């Protein structure tokens, strides 16, 4: 057993522990200078003597140099002892840290240790180990060092970063999506707080990754271009309500193709590319506006602008006839429009717009009305020209008013709007898609911001602020953000943060707001009212919309505005939170809720690869067996098989295909193929889908109503109508999006299978529902696991056919545990695209798609049996229980 105390003098160490203790004892000894003079006994005796007048004989002052020289030996001995004790310590650098600061990698990585201990840690690491870890490479000289911006650009080879990437990367989980490195979700647990912020507060999402295309050219050509490639349903993107630039138009883009007559026109209703937002440049012709601050700081401080700092906007669309004094249209009137699209459809949208531009120019040249006139269209990609923030929630108006500081001298109309902005209870009070353009000061000058609060006049009701009374107008929507001569200098001549902080440090009182100077930037911005409201017109719709603002900024100003907006307490949202906003409001999210589009196919393929890899890593006993569950396509929804256009494939886990499993519409498709008609799947969407379904549900031939609706929309945009022979194939290939409300318990997830409640079972379900014996909660399949002998007690909510009930009794009598479920492949009518537990409703909701024919049949059955709505059964792909759910049409 090792000794518990130090070795006595003269003893020899025999074990490693004794050698170590002796080494430490020697290292901690402090050398003492030998005393010259009297003997030890005399010194001890003199030390015990007491002198009462000890202060006598001392010098009146102390010479520091002589005192240090006299104590030189003791000082050097103390320093040497400290050095010896430090070099022979048993603790390494990372062991000297408190436990909450220790890291596993700190023992071999100097950078994992705090800076004050990095020197000691570097000396402790073995030289060969440093070489193996790559730490021994010589540093570059100052002239050969790679700049920081070049290093960051090298990390963006196969993806692009947003301007706020560094801020998001420290707080969010990042993934490569659509060619960008985007934030998916916060690292902290914030799903419910983010939902509460969207419903009761404010939440911000950086949407600068969206594509922006600019259309500039002759007004008739740009107008015709948008009519050709945009959604023909509803108002056109070139309608007067939009061309004035006071509000945006939410539409969709379709591909173009050459029809039988040789003309190139829209492929509607097929060829859907995706949703798009169109906005026109507003021209305030009569009002004078403040000229933008000069970008040259050397001249802006000394030379005032001409005409008192104001200028008149040029009249582009009108010219004055001096003889008659009337405004007449010019032949070459120009206009500008922006089209915002999702990044995954940007190449297809750009291709469709270019093709539509050539078609529009050809039509104008051949038109007698425009003979002899020259038209031109420019299609430019402005993806890197602006930044976009989406601020959602009822308090987003107060956040914007507190964070932004408009410049002085703007119009009275804008001043009235800005005064009413802070008193809004919700952005829903503002007219939909309203555009407001104005100029603000550099937000760094007014940092930190303060949230605005609603001011309620004392004579009004205490809980109701005044109503919003401003209407959209061109003077309110005009902005210099459209002008590239204003946007580009704002990026190149922006003051650095170092210069702003230096000015702030010179303030006599800390925290004083900086006053704008002529050298400071005036940033033009645009505000657009944005809503994600319920898209269903059914009486069962219980969703509430989420409203907010879209803030558009010039390039290079995303981070200053983000710092100011986040400081107000606004939460940050990633892709997960943005998708949850659409789901909670009952609207479709792109691309996850847009089946039969190229963007959805890419999204589904990437999701299938991730899920299949995760499924393959699990052992067979711990993962779902798709063949036993009867899940035909667990990874990607086979919409072609659902519509009957394609034949079903084998199971995902290698089991063979059941010959009895056929698509629900196989008979109709076979009949259509016999008639020589090709079935092409397409997505039935738009603002009037619910009315179309209602009108077609009571007809003997609903296919004629669908063809009539499609041709009416095509003829509105001068597209050739579809022939009567395409009636049946058009009806069979139509896929309509629906919103599913679970009739009781259960939660439908993405890729859940939707089954049809056929004629053989709808009657029994209707009797059970009307009698009140079931509450539409759990709807099990034909059998469930049973243990022991005896007949299973039938629950009120269970359903089995007579044959299946007899089979269940036989199985119970034979003491078999597993009973074959009653769902078959021929009853699959769709899939769930988005499903989860709705926090705003307190129950499960789902969005999916089913064939139009299946929806009409479900409505007929519900009407015949007096049910409140059409019924379907939903089963998760890895579940064994199919539950009842009501469906209604999802518009948009």
- Share of β-strand residues: 15-25%
Average residue pLDDT: 80
Number of strands: 26
CATH homologous superfamily placement of the largest domain: Probable tRNA modification gtpase trme, domain 1
Oligomer: single chain
Strand order of the largest sheet: 16-17-18-15-3-19
Q: Tell me the Rg in angstroms.
A: 38 Å
Descriptive report:
The protein contains 31 helices and 26 strands. By secondary structure, the protein is of the alpha+beta class. It folds into five domains: 16-42 and 62-132, no CATH class; 165-208 and 385-585, Gyrase A, domain 2 (2-Layer Sandwich), CATH 3.30.1360; 211-294 and 332-381, Aminomethyltransferase beta-barrel domains (Alpha-Beta Plaits); 623-651 and 661-774 and 823-889, Aminomethyltransferase beta-barrel domains (Elongation Factor Tu (Ef-tu), domain 3); 782-820, no CATH class. Strand 1 and strand 2 (180-186) form a beta hairpin. Helix 10 (219-229) packs across helix 14 (346-366) and helix 26 runs antiparallel to helix 27. The N and C termini lie far apart (83 Å). The model is unreliable at 40-47, 287-330, 535-540, 654-664, 777-808 and 810-819 (pLDDT under 50).
